[in-house]
Amino acid sequence: MEPPTSSRLNSRKRRKDGSGPNGATELDGIPTKMSRRSLGLREPAPFSDEVEIDYSKPYIRVTYEEAMRGTPLDRPVRVYADGIFDLFHSGHARALMQAKNLFPNTYLIVGVCSDELTHNFKGFTVMNENERYDAVQHCRYVDEVVRNAPWTLTPEFLAEHRIDFVAHDDIPYSSAGSDDVYKHIKEAGMFAPTQRTEGISTSDIITRIVRDYDVYARRNLQRGYTAKELNVSFINEKKYHLQERVDKVKKRVKDVEEKSKEFVQKVEEKSIDLIQKWEEKSREFIGNFLEMFGPEGALKHMLKEGKGRMLQAISPKQSPSSSPTHDRSPSPSFRWPFSTKTPPSSPANRSRNESAVTYDISEDEED
């Protein structure tokens, strides 16, 4: 029975940016919708010796056309893909994804070679066979795992596991004295090609580690691994510790430089801001000074106005021409002191003296 979550997973929308699901290209032949029956969606895929097969029913291979049209749910297309799967990475997962999606109804069986077989034909592995089995088990595209898979597929093995098609990249795989170990599979019409993922492989990952060996050795020393566990000599251990200290000093110096640059930048920004403010204030001061003391400034107008007021204040007022003339009262006659009588004089002198006395008294009265 199909898991209840499969329909929800099938309806999930995938982002399309010129490629198929999970980066697969149009050459992969992956339909947009498919029915997926996989135990690996909720739990690890079982091993082949843990799966019961009903041998009472005769096994008849399906053709490629029948597989592409779609088979009944109780008769999925059984696709087999094998490999070493050391340091399981995205290239492995993409290859298995393509194998799983070759046909609308696919049951993917993955064979993993043992350590003994791999070391004899290919070389030493980083992960042991149990770790590689476990990694493949937890790939969501895998329905069944074959442990200790054969290096070359025999008709007996294909019949035992009722395999319809074998999925692998189309590049000839020379090994075990053969130019292509999949040559007889291709001749039998059971080969289904997949595409390799460029830029990622187990050999590439190992090359990175070997190339940057010192970096990773120092990294693991920092994380608590001993020199003996890393197979590092005493001299190299001391060298790595010294390099670590030097790097710390460099980092501190770099941090100080960055902080000093930030400080200088802030000072420059502040100085530029102060200069701009000073220029604005200076222009404002100069404008106010010219407005007050300039050739046509306010001070000149104030001086002119004050000068006019001073001249107006010190200049005498002119009598109006139409003012009426007041008659003066006659001045009193002059009398000698201590005398009640005027001195004797001739009539001529008397008249002249009277007029003089009268004039002087009049002037004194005006003053």
UniProtKB/TrEMBL annotation:
Pfam family, one: CTP_transf_like
Recorded family membership: Belongs to the cytidylyltransferase family.
Protein origin, superkingdom: Eukaryota
Entry-linked InterPro entries: CCT, Cyt_trans-like, Pcy1-like, Rossmann-like_a/b/a_fold
Occurrences of domain Cytidyltransferase-like (ranges): 80-208
GO CC terms of this entry: endoplasmic reticulum
Coiled-coil region: 239-266
Keyword Transmembrane helix applies: no
Enzyme Commission code: 2.7.7.15
Region (Disordered): 1-41, 313-367
Record protein name field: choline-phosphate cytidylyltransferase
Keywords, in A-Z order: Coiled coil, Lipid biosynthesis, Lipid metabolism, Nucleotidyltransferase, Phospholipid biosynthesis, Phospholipid metabolism, Transferase
Enzyme class: transferase
Biased composition (Low complexity): 330-339
Chain intervals with Polar residues compositional bias: 315-324, 340-356
Catalyzed reaction equations: phosphocholine + CTP + H(+) = CDP-choline + diphosphate
Pathway(s) this gene product operates in, as recorded in its UniProt entry: Lipid metabolism; Phospholipid metabolism; phosphatidylcholine biosynthesis; phosphatidylcholine from phosphocholine: step 1/2
